[in-house]
């Protein structure tokens, strides 16, 4: 079976459109449609059906495409292994939450690379549902997801459905962070009600499996008050350090980052929700046999010890 046929079908599922899939694969749309029809005749099932919302996979099609993606991932990995030997190429791809202790670990990991050799590193910060998709679809080697333990069941079911493995990295309570010039900076005991007059900085793409955006906003985010929604960490530090009336709920931040941005972090006595950061990977990837993965996870372990000390 020609792997091009598999790639065509996988790209159609990914985009939900024959036209967009053809554009992504740099081929004419009639040729892509012909390839999908040829594949369907070879395996004797209908892979896709058209709906008002686009092209979706049939139940049998979904089952087939899961196998197809695994095959393509393994072939891509084989090609990477034998076109660049480990001594030539230092390669790793990571999809993680916007967490300062993780970015610190990543920086230490990069510092230890051999800059005389070739390097191919991908590092993206995004929400947990997108990270699960990134890893499950083979676009990234490792992922770290973050979720409140109140929604653990949603995430465990989603990970199982995606055929992924996981292990816990860190359980923690959010701390509140703001400028050292914030009106609350010198207050010893912080309560949630103390924050009401101030502007909250919030990551705007919170996601939970099996819940739509409307339900998430009603459940996770208090719609009342003053909020600025952002989507990357650079802006959050600039806002927090320069807008003295702003604050943000975060995982514990390494001391050196707080000093660099002139911030302080404090526990809130009545904030008791527990969050979990979890490492995820595909079933066929042994991170402890991959040298690059081992180096990164070693730095994560050291960074966690640092913020907890």
UniProtKB/TrEMBL annotation:
One of its GO terms (cellular component) is protein-DNA complex. This is LysR family transcriptional regulator. It comes from the Bacteria. It comes from Candidatus Caccosoma faecigallinarum. Residues 1-58 form the HTH lysR-type domain. Gene3D superfamilies: 3.40.190.290, Winged helix-like DNA-binding domain superfamily/Winged helix DNA-binding domain. One of its GO terms (molecular function) is DNA binding. The keyword DNA-binding applies. The keyword Translocase does not apply. Keywords: DNA-binding, Transcription, Transcription regulation.
